[in-house]
Amino acid sequence: MPKTVPQIAASRQLDSTRDTVPLTHEFLADMLGVQRSTVSSITRSLQEAGFIKQGRGVITVMDRTRLEGASCECYGTVRNSFERLLPHTYGNTSTTDLRQQRRCS
Q: What's the angle, vertex CA 69, arms to CA 79 and CA 54, rounded to 5?
C-alpha cells in the first residue's frame, strides 16, 4: 500500500472517523502517476482490511486511525507541512503518533 494510503488520508480533512471523499480510481491514478488497475488493486486491499469502503466515484474512510497507521512516514511529513503552511487545517484532532509510522517503500 505505498503512496495510495497517504494520498487518500491527506486528500481531505476528516472531522470524524468516517468521511466520504469524491474520488474516482481514474482520477487517483492520474494524481499518483500509476495505472488505474494499480489503484483498483490497492483500494480493494484497503477495503478488505476495513480501512475504506468504495462506491461509484467515492471512497469512504471507515477507520481513519487504522488508515493513518497503515501509511508510511510520508503521510506525517505531508500533514506536518499542511499544519505549518495552513494552520488549523486539521483542527484539534489527535490521531496516530506520526513518528511511529512505517517507512515509505
A: 90
Measured CA to CA, the distance from residue 29 to residue 33 in angstroms comes to 6
Note the pLDDT tens digit of each residue in 25-55: 999 999 989 999 999 999 999 999 999 999 9
Please, is 16 exposed, middle or buried when counting C-beta atoms within 10 Å of its C-beta (0-12, 13-18, 19+)?
A: exposed
Residue of 1, 25, 12 lying closest to 78 (CA atoms)? 12
User: Which phi and psi (to 5°) does residue 3 adopt?
Assistant: -80, -15
Q: Which three cell numbers stand for residue 9?
A: 488520508
Residues 6+ apart with CB under 8 A from 83: 89, 90
* Per-residue DSSP letter, 72: B
User: pTM for the complete prediction?
Assistant: 0.63
Q: What percent of the chain has pLDDT over 90?
A: 35
